[in-house]
Write a structure and sequence with these properties.
The chain is α+β, with helices and mostly antiparallel strands. The chain has a single domain, classed as Lipocalin. 19% of the residues lie in helices and 43% in strands. It has four helices and eleven strands, in the order H-H-E-E-E-E-E-E-E-E-E-E-H-E-H. The strands form two sheets. It has an eight-stranded antiparallel barrel with strand order 1-4-5-6-7-8-9-10. A hairpin with a 2-residue loop joins strand 2 and strand 3. The longest helix is centred in the N-terminal third of the chain and has 16 residues. This is Putative licpodalin-4 1. Keywords: Signal.
């Protein structure tokens, strides 16, 4: 094997693991005081026949093991809904896990952080849909990306980590200017 091939293989190996997240990566990603937008996902949610759009998380409390946040979304012309949620942070076999539950503590949903790019302030989470048993994907992007159009810096990363999954657009250009928090 020549030196060029060895160097190429090493570079590919380093690149493949450069953005492999761990629990500390998850903590750093969530510790922001910005909104964290869900810009793309492999499924849709509706209220009646109105699609949920402009979905984002707003941190209300965080320590090394717990993350409390309000999840906001819009449906219809301008109806905003706020859901207070709680999550536990842990290290799982497939990567760092954010186990989300309602404050009443009923149902828990573990989300696995597949990918996080600190420089781009965005990443991919996956979870098992309790209705279908399928794994779903979500692309999350921080406010600092100045999301003024439909594309985000991590769309390609969603495609890479969620191959074969549908790609529904959840973020619209007017979302950040009309949201109830963080203006």
């Amino acid at each position: 094997m020549n030196c060029f091939t060895v160097a190429t293989l090493l570079a590919l190996g380093v690149t493949a693991f450069a953005n492999t997240p761990n629990l500390e990566t998850l903590r750093k990603a969530l510790s922001t005081n910005q909104r964290i937008w869900t810009t793309r996902r492999s499924y849709e949610r509706h209220t009646g026949d109105q699609k949920h759009q402009c979905v984002y998380a707003w941190k209300t409390y965080m320590d090394s093991e717990n993350y409390y946040f309000d999840q906001y979304y819009r449906y219809g012309t301008n109806t905003w809904v706020r859901h207070p949620l709680r999550a536990r942070l842990s290290e799982g076999q497939s990567g760092p896990v954010l186990t989300v539950r309602q404050p009443s503590g009923q149902k828990e949903t573990p989300y696995i952080l597949l990918y996080w790019d600190e420089a781009k302030n965005c990443g991919v989470l996956t979870f098992e849909n309790s209705t279908t048993g399928e794994y779903e994907c979500e692309l999350h992007v921080g406010d600092s990306n100045q999301l003024q159009n439909e594309d985000t810096p991590c769309d390609h990363d969603y495609d890479t980590h969620c191959q074969g999954k549908k790609k529904y657009r959840v973020y619209e250009p007017d979302c950040s200017s009309h949201s109830p928090q963080g203006q």
